[in-house]
Model the fold of this input.
Amino acid sequence: MARQLSATVPLLLAVMMLLTSCGPQGGTPPPAAETTSSAPGTASPSDTASATSTPTATPGTLAPEPPPTTLKAAAPATAEELAAYRDALYCPTGTPEGCHSYESMAGYFGHLLGIVAPMFDERYGTVSRPAAFYYVAAGVTGPTACLKDDGTPDPYSSADYSYCLTDRAIYTGQDALWALYKGVGYAAPAVAYAHEWGHHIQNIMKVPEPETPEENALLEKQADCIAGAWVQHAAQSGNLLYPADLGDLNALMAAVAPPDPGEEPTPVQERIDALQLGYNSGLPGCNSFFPETPVYAG
Done:
């Protein structure tokens, strides 16, 4: 499932949780995004509690193409806010007590960003973040900077969980987020978001765009590996209990970036193995998928 420079296929979500991702295209990291809170529970950029270490990726001199959208970009919640809502972050399947509701997904989105961002900020620097983190409420739609096969803009909707290569933004829909949160549990939205952020890392580190189904499968497994590296970081930071919070790995990885209709799916066990490689070896282990273009050189 891809949102690329010239061809995209929008993802529709019915009752199952579906996520989209994109193959990378050579590029340079975007400058730090100017973000504003899009809903209660999200934080302003000045409140972001992410690390700002020297990035591994070299900042680019050209800004990414401005996204043709009226959505407001969100920012990661502060550490203080995360601490206050920690109990609501953990929502095992079938246990709604103390969890977020469908109506509070906008606030949860800021918490999700606050959980996922620290590893990427520490390893690559905030300058190399995606250009924007967009939350798409139910009923809202509009054009992204990515194009469909017929050359028209690929629209975003509340069914989205996708990274658009052209504007380097991640689109997260209320319905897709809720399906993962309620249907699979706390870890699913975070692991899936780390997977999408992983596609951004592939983009800025110039992992080549896949030309064959085999290369596309490697690309997805590398994004799974990057998500596994996030799991390692989150567990070490006390933001995730491993393996308890991951629950059923088969259900989790089946929910992360399923293939386009007609594409041959990668066996779930191979994706689990990629996730566990990232957990065991960190980001350096993820270089093994495309050794000539490592995603982490630190």
Remarks:
- The two ends are 30 Å apart (CA to CA).
